[in-house]
Amino acid sequence: MPYFNIDSQKARTYDAIVIGSGISGGWAAKELTEKGLKTLVLERGRDVKHNIDYPTTNMQPWEFPHRERMPLEAVKANPIQSKCYNWKESSAHFFIKDEEQPYVQEKPFDWIRGYQVGGKSLLWARQTQRWSKYDFEGPARDGFAVEWPISYDDIAPWYSHVEKFAGISGNKDGLASLPDGEFLPPHQMTCVEKYFKEKVAQNYKDRHIIIGRAAHITEPQQIHYDQGRAKCQNRTMCERGCPFGGYFSSNSSTIPWAMKTGKMTLRPHSVVHSIIYDEKKQKATGVRVIDANTKEMMEFYAKIIFVNAAALNSNLVLLNSTSSRFPNGLGNDSGTLGKYFAFHNYRARVSGEYEGFLDSTTDGRRPNGSYIPRFRNVFKQETDFLRGYAAGFSANRSSKTDYSGEGEALKHSLHNPTPGNWRVGSHIMGETIPKESNYVALDPNKKDPYGIPQLKISVDYDDNDEKMVKDYLEQMTEMFTMAGFTNIRTSDSKQAPGLDIHEMGGVRMGKDPKTSMLNAYHQLHAAPNVFVTDGASMTSTSTQNPSLTYMAFTARAADWAVKELNRKNL
Ligand SMILES: Cc1cc2nc3c(=O)[nH]c(=O)nc-3n(C[C@H](O)[C@H](O)[C@H](O)COP(=O)(O)OP(=O)(O)OC[C@H]3O[C@@H](n4cnc5c(N)ncnc54)[C@H](O)[C@@H]3O)c2cc1C
Ligand code: SF4
Q1: Quick check: 485 and 354 in contact, CB under 8 A?
Q2: Which residue in 58, 192, 495, 543 could disulfide with 374, CB within 3.0 to 4.6 Å?
Q3: Angle between helices 547-566 and 23-34 (to 10 degrees)
Q4: 180, 174 contact by CB (below 8 A)
């Protein structure tokens, strides 16, 4: 049996194993291989090669059977994935099929997933803001959740490191609540966005409207050409995969970069079942994998393991990694594994119209919008709810098209829509507080198609979220009114958690091994050669889109891992 053959065991031994090839796994692969480690990247889904595997990238709307809308049968068959705004005829192939990847919703939770090389990096909206020192200090200040074991100063150089390579566009706004980064030139704000920015600045000292910071190459640098990437063409068809590599994805950037080192082995169709813990050596020695095609179980070995399966699956892998030393999941001496799970609250929206600037309109496309950084409870506690919210904001000129008539007249009206008022809109991005009662666990009875226990998710909003939604709706209405916007409408979708696609926690970092899973370098306190650097490691969530922080965390942890290996500490 090749399984027990010594040569075969050697062939399955690496310096490092990375579980998952999405945003964080791609960074782990890049950093570890660049530093000379022979690295195995295990990915449960199929391979998606940059450009080669983007079947819809150059298709015109009329080339899709349903003009990009999904047929009703597909919607019915995928009640969860179909809720994501990016799930359409041009991109649905980068989402899982609901029925093939079951999980248990103890409370309603929409789990949006992309299982392929590149993970959700093919689908993301590319918003990338740094955390500030105040975000890291939040839990220590108000006493909810545990203290972060790191500060902004620890992570700032790593933000710079990942920003330069990934390519982040943005404006240097000089805000204490949202530190500037290594920016490529910013996208432009529309005239009504600029107008709102001015009005808000005149009326509020602590509120700002800025152009979104986004992972788009607006002015390629040599490092981007070296990756084979070029300037973003503003096509706004990013979720199909971008032939220019105009936005950051693992597929266009970190994975091919790691491949070029000659040190990476990428193994798609490899579902990680669990991590192997050797009680004599008192360390993790490898992983058990189920080949998705043959359903064969096999083992791979390494000195260090990076867990980057995205927050929920990283929890699942650790929970399923049991041994007599760790009967409740790998590294779970504190009993916190799977607990203190959190997310972002995206429920509320405010929209309106503006009757000015009728001599101006927008032209072309922009893969970005404007952003309102958090202004509640940033520096001190000021409201009756904890923490705060950021918000998206955008303003575009509306137009009406007359579809009546035929022939020449119809062509003329199609080419000459009647411009209407400007439409303005905003949505909340609220911080939720990690609580013990928001948890994920293995279902004791239900298994997935690979025989792995299904993940049971029990996560909900609380009173703090309700108060925050109320405050956002009131404040945004006040700001819109102050700016002279009309026809203001507020809404609360009451959507279940999950659709924000910012799952975080369950394997949180902390100073005290009794109340946390990971130390300041993302090592399991109780098994330090295992690193968890995706959203699972988040101690609190703040309001920023999280992926830039996962990238910086991963690069920093990889640097530390290699240093610790060289010091023979792992
Ligand atoms: C529509 C959309 C918009 C978004 N917008 C933004 C945004 O603007 N800004 C932002 O910061 N974030 C955004 N996100 C979220 C962002 O995509 C995620 O935060 C990010 O991809 C997380 O990186 P990750 O490496 O943890 O997970 P992923 O990128 O999901 O990668 C995880 C990988 O692990 C693999 N995997 C899982 N389980 C196993 C296993 N057992 N064995 C082997 N492999 C496994 C998966 O197949 C996947 O490839 C958005 C997401 C979506 C879908
Ligand atoms: S907007 Fe830019 S990144 Fe997105 S598909 Fe177009 S060129 Fe590519």
Answers
A1: yes
A2: 543
A3: 30
A4: yes
